[in-house]
Every structure is written in structure tokens, then in C-alpha cells.
């Protein structure tokens, strides 16, 4: 919370708080809104904190132009890849860095309050993956996609996760890089298994034909949810005991498919127990995001030797390369959700002012499933 000193205005013989003065100035410019901007960069090797973001008051125009819509923000998605956007150089040719003191953006869902776009009307729910982190925004209607809430049983936020890019990443990663086949008796291991993508990947691996699915997570609660709610055969708490030993017991026939969300020591342990001609789905490397290393990070020499000797595939996976399969894949995800075959978990944080804290918590593994910020109802 910010505290402001009172400012005395002699000509009016009254006192206004700084906030009140700013409100009056902004009101002349248009509609008052709140937004979240990048306040500081953590540095390539730094750990992001809530204070890297700043909530501030701003204003948008009172009127919209042809082709535009005014939307009220409902939900914002907070994702690990955003850590790269906090750096001046994202290390990627498809991700732009956030600029200091400029509004941050990412996946978002809102409701149209006013429209001058032919295909959108007041009351429509819309989504964008470059949604500004602010309470109200004026957007180009042609860049928005209209949503059908019935596809996800009314859970709109699912379009940011299980029925959105997160679900697509899990499904297409397994299909395109996992080479899962019904009847092949394959064992899949998922690291970061209680996260947004991992929790879906394990379930999808089973639906696509894996005979055994084992998750790796960081708490007993997460492991319990994976097994009891999401149908994993077993789960390993990597903070307890010997991961390699537990993996050998739970995957006696070795590992055929590895959905890698974390990288680092955990991934090295899994790879060392993978079978010949097996496959790594390189989804994320969250353990490496606070380090100045290339993506994907190189494996240690001994692990890379194992990978080559056993002909284990490890290719960079980018869901944007498979957008021709988006529509059919989203419909498949929605069908599984409607049928109850794909269980969805979300960690919901309320209030735009808490988006920085939500980001920090997510990067520290504090979420179960997708991290969502509820901005308004």
C-alpha cells in the first residue's frame, strides 16, 4: 500500500491528497483505470519478486474508434515463460521483452463493454495472448478471439489453461514429440507434474495410450493430488528421499517418454533411466530460467553421452509451429473436459494488485495447476 502526503493548494483553501489530484488530472484525459507495469528487472541470474511489478493509475480514451472494442478484464494468466520477458534480451526470437514502466501483457480474458467491430458485441467474452495487465482496455477487435463458454462448462478461465495454450502444449507435445502409441506399453514420467502443463500432460499421456504415468512434484500434497485426482499411477516428492532410487522402483522397465518441465538435476536423473529410442518432450526448463544459459540448456557431458548412446530424442518444442492443428486439438481438450476425463486445477489469486505476488509464488512452485489472477467478476 502506498501512502501519500497531503498537498496544500492555497488558491482553493483546501487540501487534496496526491491520489485525488492525479485522479482529477487523469479524468480530463479519459477513463481512469489501474494497470501493472514492469517496475524493475531481476537480472538474468536474479530471482523475480513481487516488487519487480508496480500497480499504478492511468487513463484511457473515453471513446473508441472503428474496429476497436473496450473490454473489462476478467482473468489474466501468469506463466513461467514470462520470466524471460523480464530480461532486456528474452533469448528468443518470438518473445518480446517487457519494457520498464510500461504495462505488462500476456494471456487474458475479458468481456466486451463497447464495440465498434462488426463481429463483436457488448457482452461477448474474448481472449488475447497479448492482453494488457490493466482493469479496462481498448483493443483492436481483429486481434481478439470470441469464446464459447459452453465448451468448458462455463469455466472461462480454462481457455487460458487446459483449453488454451497450456493444454495445446501438453497435447501437441505428446503427439508430436512423445510418439505415444496405444498398446506400446510405454511408461511416461512428468517433472513439474503439479504445474499448469505437467498436470495436464500426465493425464493426456494416459488418454493417448501410456500404460504407466509417474509424476515428480515438490510436496506431499501435490503428489497426493496427482494420484488421487488426476489418475497418475504414482508420484515422487523430489524433496524427500532419493529420486533415482524411487524412480527405479516405480519404473522398473525404464522410462519411454519424459515430459520435461524443469531441467536441471531432476531431468538428469530421469534421462539416466530412459530406454533406448525413447523421447524427451522439451516443454520447459523452469529450474534454469533464473540463470543466464542458452535454451534449451545443454546437458552435462555424462548425461549427453547417455542420450546419444541410447538414441534418445530431445528436440526443442514450440506449440506455435503447430497452429494448423490448433482448432481440432482445442476441441479434443474441451471434449475431455466435458466428459470429465481431463481434470483441471487452478490456483486463483484475486485482485490486479496481487499479480506480482502471484508471479513470484508461481516461480517458486507455490501453485497447483494453472496460476490465474481474477481481476474482476
UniProtKB/TrEMBL annotation:
GO cellular component: cytoplasm
Keyword Ribonucleoprotein: no
Broad EC category: oxidoreductase
Single GO BP term: prostaglandin metabolic process
Pfam family, one: ADH_zinc_N
GO molecular function: 15-oxoprostaglandin 13-reductase [NAD(P)+] activity
Reactions performed catalytically: 13,14-dihydro-15-oxo-prostaglandin E2 + NADP(+) = 15-oxoprostaglandin E2 + NADPH + H(+); 13,14-dihydro-15-oxo-PGF2alpha + NADP(+) = 15-oxoprostaglandin F2alpha + NADPH + H(+); 13,14-dihydro-15-oxo-prostaglandin E1 + NADP(+) = 15-oxoprostaglandin E1 + NADPH + H(+); 13,14-dihydro-15-oxo-prostaglandin F1alpha + NADP(+) = 15-oxoprostaglandin F1alpha + NADPH + H(+)
Known function: Functions as 15-oxo-prostaglandin 13-reductase and acts on 15-keto-PGE1, 15-keto-PGE2, 15-keto-PGE1-alpha and 15-keto-PGE2-alpha with highest activity towards 15-keto-PGE2. Overexpression represses transcriptional activity of PPARG and inhibits adipocyte differentiation.
Protein name stated in the entry: Prostaglandin reductase 2
Organism: Athene cunicularia (Burrowing owl)
Lineage: Eukaryota, Metazoa, Chordata, Craniata, Vertebrata
Gene label: PTGR2
Amino acid at each position: 500500500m502506498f501512502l501519500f502526503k497531503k498537498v496544500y493548494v492555497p488558491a482553493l483553501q483546501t487540501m487534496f491528497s496526491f491520489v485525488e489530484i492525479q485522479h482529477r488530472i487523469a479524468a480530463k484525459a479519459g477513463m481512469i483505470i489501474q494497470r501493472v507495469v514492469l517496475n524493475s528487472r531481476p537480472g538474468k541470474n536474479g530471482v523475480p519478486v513481487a516488487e519487480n511489478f508496480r500497480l499504478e493509475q492511468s487513463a484511457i480514451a473515453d471513446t473508441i474508434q472503428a474496429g476497436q472494442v473496450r473490454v473489462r478484464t476478467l482473468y489474466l494468466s501468469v506463466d513461467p515463460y514470462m520470466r524471460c520477458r523480464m530480461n532486456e534480451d528474452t533469448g528468443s526470437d518470438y518473445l518480446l521483452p517487457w519494457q520498464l514502466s510500461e504495462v505488462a501483457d500476456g494471456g487474458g480474458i475479458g468481456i466486451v463493454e463497447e464495440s465498434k467491430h462488426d463481429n463483436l458485441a457488448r457482452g461477448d467474452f474474448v481472449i488475447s495472448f497479448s492482453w494488457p495487465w490493466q482493469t479496462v482496455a481498448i483493443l483492436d477487435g481483429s486481434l481478439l478471439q470470441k469464446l464459447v463458454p459452453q465448451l468448458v462448462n462455463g469455466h472461462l478461465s480454462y481457455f487460458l489453461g487446459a483449453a488454451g495454450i497450456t493444454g495445446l502444449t501438453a497435447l501437441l507435445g505428446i503427439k508430436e514429440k512423445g510418439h505415444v502409441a496405444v498398446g506400446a506399453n510405454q511408461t511416461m514420467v512428468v517433472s513439474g507434474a503439479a504445474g499448469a502443463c505437467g498436470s495436464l500432460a500426465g493425464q493426456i499421456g494416459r488418454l493417448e495410450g501410456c500404460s504407466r504415468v509417474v509424476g515428480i512434484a515438490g510436496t506431499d500434497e501435490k503428489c497426493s493430488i496427482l494420484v488421487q485426482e488426476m489418475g497418475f499411477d504414482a508420484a515422487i516428492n523430489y524433496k524427500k528421499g532419493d529420486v533415482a532410487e524411487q524412480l527405479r522402483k516405480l519404473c522398473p522397465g525404464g522410462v519411454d517418454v519424459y515430459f520435461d518441465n524443469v531441467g536441471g538435476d531432476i531431468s538428469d536423473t530421469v534421462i539416466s533411466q530412459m530406454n533406448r529410442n525413447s523421447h524427451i518432450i522439451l516443454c520447459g526448463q523452469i529450474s534454469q530460467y533464473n540463470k543466464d544459459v542458452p535454451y534449451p540448456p545443454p546437458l552435462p557431458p555424462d548425461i549427453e553421452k547417455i542420450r546419444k548412446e541410447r538414441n534418445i530424442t530431445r528436440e526443442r518444442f514450440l506449440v506455435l509451429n503447430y497452429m494448423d492443428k490448433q482448432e481440432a486439438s482445442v476441441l479434443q481438450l474441451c471434449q475431455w473436459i466435458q466428459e470429465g476425463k481431463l481434470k483441471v486445477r487452478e490456483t486463483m489469486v484475486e485482485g490486479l494488485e496481487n499479480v506480482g505476488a502471484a508471479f513470484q509464488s508461481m516461480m517458486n512452485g507455490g501453485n497447483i495447476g494453472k496460476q490465474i489472477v481474477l481481476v474482476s467478476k
